[in-house]
Amino acid sequence: MRASVRWEQAVRATPSSAADFLGRVSAAGARFGDAPVCVHRTPMFLDRAALRRWARILPRFHRIVRHARAALLADLDREHESLAARIGVDAQSIAWARVDPGFASAAPLARVDAFSADGHPWFVELNAESPAGMGYADALAGVFAEDPAWTATGSLRAFDVRGALVRTVREIAREWGHRHRRLTVAIVDRAGVPTEPEFTLIRDRFRAAGLVAEVVHPDQLRFDGDALTAGDLRIDVVFRRVLVADLRAHPEDGAALLAAYRARRVCMVNSLRTALLHCKGLFALFHDPAFALSEADRAFVERHIPWTGLLLGDAGDALRERALHEPDAWVLKPLDGYGGQGVVLGWASDARAWARAVSEADRHVLQRRLPEARGAFFDVRAGEPRDRLIDLGPFLARGRLAGFLCRVAEGPLANVTCGASQVPVFIDLAS
Length: 431
What we know:
Number of strands: 22
Oligomer: single chain
Shape: globular
CATH architecture of the domain at 160-269: 3-Layer(aba) Sandwich
Distance between the termini: 9 Å
CATH superfamily of the domain at 160-269: Glutathione synthase, substrate-binding domain superfamily, eukaryotic
Number of helices: 16
C-alpha cells in the first residue's frame, strides 16, 4: 500500500479541527505574513525511484546553467550588446554582475520551479536569486512528523533543507576567504516583507549550528571602508534575501551593503551575479539554436525545459503571431516578475484579453504549456480532500538536491502570493 493511501486513511481515523492544525502550523513559524503557509493535512510523497530520478537530473541541469553563466560573464563589457542584455538583463544588474563576489558560483543556493506529470520532470523557471521556502519546508516537516498520521504511515524520511543551507554558506565563506573560527551571518531583507517569519526559522538554524546570526534590514547596515556592521554586529556573510530589484529601486537603503560587496569586505550569498541566471530569458537562451550546447545537453533541454521564446523590443513578432492563434498552448511571463505577478495563461484568458497581453508584451517570454501534475490533498478548511495543482520545486545546494518546495493550488498558479499552500515532501522508504 502506498504511503499516500496509508496517510489518508490515518487522517480520516484521527480527525483534527482546522483551528488546531492551522494553529500548529503558525506556532511552528510557517507563516506568510500572519497567515499559515499550509492549509492541507496531506504531505507530498516521493518514492525511492523518483528521488533517484531528481538526484540524477538536477546536477545535469546545473551543469547547463554553469555553462550559460560562463557565456554570460564572458562578454559583460559589451554592455547593451552583451549576451546578458540580449536575454533581457537590465543595465544596472549587468554592472553589478561585473563585480567579482570572491567565489565561483553565481547561485550556490537556488530553486527550480518544476512540474512532474506522470513522473517526468519539467523545469519552468530558475529562482537563482533568493529562493524562499527553505525554512518553511523544515518547519512544516516538523509539524507533520508530530501528526498521528506520521506514525500510522511509517517508513518516512524528511529532508534537512536548512542543514544544506548552513553547510553551503559555510563552504562559500571558506571559498571567499573567511578563516575565523566563528562565522557571523546577517539575513538581510527589507522590513515588513511577508516572509519575515521564515527569516527567524533560518536564523535559529544558523545559531543551532554554532554561528552568530541576526535578521537585519538594509538601512540598518553601515560600512566604514573595512567592516560591514549592523549596530555592534560585525558581519562576515550576508545571506541575501533582498531582491536585486529592490536594491535597484531603493539604492539609498542598500548603499552600505553594495559598498562592502564591491570592496569585497563581506561575502554575499547569493551574489549579485544571480541576475544573469534569474532572468526568465535564460530558458529562451537554452532553446536558441545559436547558443552553443553539446548534443547531449540540447537533448536534455528539449526533454526537460518547455520551449521558451523571448519577446524583447522588436524581437519576437513571429512568435507573437503564433501565440495569438494558439492561446491554449502558451504562458506569458514578464522577464523580471516574481510571485506570479504579470503571468497570463492563454487557456484561462478570454480572446480579447489574451490578444491585448501578447500584443503589448515587451520584456516577456512565451513558454509552452505543460501537462498539469495534480493530486488530492486534505484541505482542513473544507474537512475533506480536494484536487490540487502540484508545483514540485527542488532546492539546489551547489547544484545538488537539498529538498523541495512543494506548493499545491486550487487555481492555475501555484504561488503562495496567489493563494497556494506549501506542504512538506517526504520520502517513502517502503517504496
